[in-house]
Every structure is written in C-alpha cells, then in structure tokens.
Predict the structure.
Amino acid sequence: MVMVDIIPQMYLFEECYFENLMYLLFLLKMLLKGIIPVIPILTGIKTQFIIMPKNVFILSVRKSNQLKIKEGKERSNKLKQFFGTSRRGDLKEALRGLNNPQLIMLFSTDEQFDAHVKELEKLYPGIPSIGCIGMSYAANMTEKGVSVIAFYDGVTVSAGILESVSTMPVKYISRLEQDLKKVNPSPKDTICIDLCSGNDACVLTTIYSVLKRQNISLVGGTGDAGRVSANGQVYQDATAYAFVKNNNGRVKAYKENIYHRMGNYYFIASKTNRAEYIIGELNGKPARDVYQEILHVTEKEIQTQTFKNPFGKISGNDTCIISIKEVQGNALKCFRQVNDSDVLILLELDDYEAVVKNTIQTIRQDFSRISAVFSVNCLFRYLLFTENQYLPKYLQEMSSLGNHAGFIGYGEHYNNRFVNQSMTCVVFE
C-alpha cells in the first residue's frame, strides 16, 4: 500500500489502470502540483484512489491486463449554466446554442415580456421556466433587450407559481410543497430561486415556512413592472419559483452587504404604513427632518444620499438594509416594509471593492470547484457601481469564480429576508 497526503474527507472516487509504476508516480507528482486535475487513460496496474486538489490517497495497487477508463459520474454530469443575450430583443438570438435545458430563466423588457414568454414556451415546450422584467448580466450588462440564464446537465428542476401574493399566497402553498418533493431535495444540494412581483416580506414568510422544514436555502429578487412568468404563462401579483437540485455537488447561498453602521444612532419607527413601506416618524420626529438633520442634505438630495446612507434593521447577527425610495411630505417611503416600534440604525458605505474581494475569497475557500454562480444585485448597487465606473471590474471579478450570471433586482431575497442594496447569490459545486 502506498499513501500520499492522507485526507479526512472523500471528494471523488474513481477506478483506473496504470501502465507501470513509474507512470503512476509521475501522474501523482503532477496532481500534487495542481498541474492536472484528474488522471487520464491509465493501463496495466489497477488502483483505486480518492482525489482532492493537491491531495491523493492511494488505497490499493494490483496487476491487471485490462484497459479501462471509469469517469466519475460527478465529472461527466456536472451542472452547467448558460447565458445568452440579445440587446435588440431577439429571443432566438439569445437562445442560440442552448440545447436540452432543464431550467430557463427569462429577463426581458416591459414591452416585450409577454411576447417573449409565449415564444419561449413554443421553442422549448414543457421545459420548466421562470421570468421577470429586468436587466441581466454575465461578463457584461444587458440593460435593454432580452437575456436567458439556463441550467442543464447534472440538475433536477421543478418550477411553479404562487398567486395572490398581496392578499393570500398561503392559499397556493400546496403547489410549492408538491414541486419541492419532485426534486427529492436535501440541504446540501438544493436551492430555491424566486422572482417576485411585490409584497416580498409576505411572500418570503410563506415560502420559507415550507423550506425551513428541510433546511433549504432561497435566493431571489423582485422584478420590474409587476409581472412574472412561470412555465409559459404571465402572472400579476405573483411569485415564480424554481427548485434546483445539483445532482452531483453542493450548493450554498451567500449575501453581501457593502455597508457598515454609522455612529451610535438608534431610531424607533412610528406612524408607519406597512402596505406603502412608509416611515412617518423616527423617535417621534418627522422622518424626513431626522434624516436631513443628521446628514446635512436637502430634500432633493435624499434619494441619492441613500446610496451612501440607507437605514438598517438589526436581525440577530445580521443587518437588513432599508433603502429610501422617495420623500412623501414629512415621511420617507422605502423599498422595504418597516413596522411601528421597529428599531433602525443608520448605515454608511464601506470599502465595497474590499468587501467584494472578501466575498470572492470566502467562496473560494468554501468551494475548490465551481460549476456556476447565479446572483441578484440590487438596482442601487448597479447605479452606484456604474456611477463610480466599477461595474465592469465587478463583473470581471465575479466571473473569475467561474460561470457567473444574474439579474438586477428591486429588492433581494435571502432565505426569509427581504433586503435592499445587497447582493445575494447561490454557488453550485
């Protein structure tokens, strides 16, 4: 028996045959140096081994006259992600090269969305699909036109719709439960991706009541213009969802916050309108006046100041960001629901380039091999990064992880949390 760098956790099991012991030792040397990821055609001496990057544990070696290659199932059926786009709005152009998808996500304009949903169903009948109105990206942005993000190979998918999300989404919860069962989920390999038309907090509470029973994570966001699609149909006042199971690897969800606390400000919210996301007063004073006095900005500047100084709501060890949408009289209308007696803090912009680098580093530490990354970036992050000419660099840095694609949301979803000015993503091994 030969042993090299014994490892505590099995990563991949394969069976191959070697021509001679010298060839075996040469290949092991290349593996340890990280020059080759897997051993190619090998004959003569049979060995069973376990591979991790730069680590090999040889279990046994014996003579054999056979010639055999046995590729691990994981490697031959690795999940793949497709991104296609057409800035002129030609769906067929965006779909060019897409074969045998298991899930298609559609991102289109308000003017073309309905027509694109119908066309997509004709081109790929019966294939699970979800969609919304909004901008998308991979290595570059698609601000107009149409884009598709698709998963294929090594993936099991089911998709569906929750209707009446502004009144009673729980009415349709049995659909969600049935669709989840179809993929035979587990916490380590299954993610829920949702695209929402509004009333996010209520929607997430409903969905997560099902997901938390099996510890399934969720990543998603809100689209534009109040419409979403699922399986070839357009819906208003609804949330489209897809359960995606990585058949041969793990999944993990992440949330990125590029803000930190400013000062020691605490605010008790009052005179709120939950339905309209309005904060009437902070500590008993008009919310508009409080914000202006602290930051020394005019009423006109409040909408852009939220890029640098949104509110935050502490939730356990996390902070949910609350963006200001506009001024309404003496009140502030936000992109996220605030309730009476909620305790808010004030946030300020961090070194976002350093934060992004740290996120990428964390993901690399968690995954030695990445098949795909799907993300949702807030509209305000898009505007901020664009204004500071950081957006191309950001997309390039995220693409360094592997196949990265996503869309611009009007609110981001992370498990049961509805957040603003954030990035959420799921990484597929």
